[in-house]
Predict the structure.
Amino acid sequence: MGPPGAGKGTQGALLSQALGVPRFATGDLLRDAVKRGTPLGLEARAVMEAGHLVSDDIILGVVREELARDSAANGVIFDGVVRTIPQAEGLERLLAERGRHIDAVLFFDVTDAEILARLEKRRAVEGRADDDPAAVVTRLRAYREQTAPVLAWYDQRGGVRRIPAVGAVDEIARRVGEAVSAVRK
Ligand code: AMP
């Protein structure tokens, strides 16, 4: 978890390699659906481009499918899920149905100033519609109002590992590795 531009995608990919466990990013899946013009993409496109959150039902539907895959049998690194309390509750239910659980919740901690600088840079490189300044304001508001409360929710149920996420990519990856190995022992 973490605000947009916190480095979840970069660190999620590195952790996926290190653990040999797939990374599942709802944002990537949705962007791909938009690009291919599937029914899911058509439904999500305008909401995403404006920087709002896609509905909890859609997200829980794609998470349910992901958990059913053979490739997820040994675990999944969720990136950008969950982003609301109903999603957190829904994920608990989906995991319980399968006799599974969350090993660790990692929170990538970055200041707003750093986020704005990173997203501006990413916009120039990737050209994501939701990295334009108006959409970024909406995304940060969605994060503060809907996602940040989920951290307190997890704090009450086993805790959140906070990763200071400013600095060199490999230094942050080292912190992630430490946080995860503390859980797996
Ligand atoms: P991301 O790549 O994780 O920043 O996600 C890009 C966009 O996809 C978000 O701004 C939302 O519109 C949508 N999205 C991705 N994951 C979720 C989620 N868990 N809940 C709601 N919307 C999501």
Summary: The beta strands are 23-25, 77-79, 106-109, 161-164. The pocket of adenosine monophosphate is lined by residues 4, 26-27, 30, 47-48, 51-54, 59, 80-83, 87, 130, 139 (CB under 6 Å).
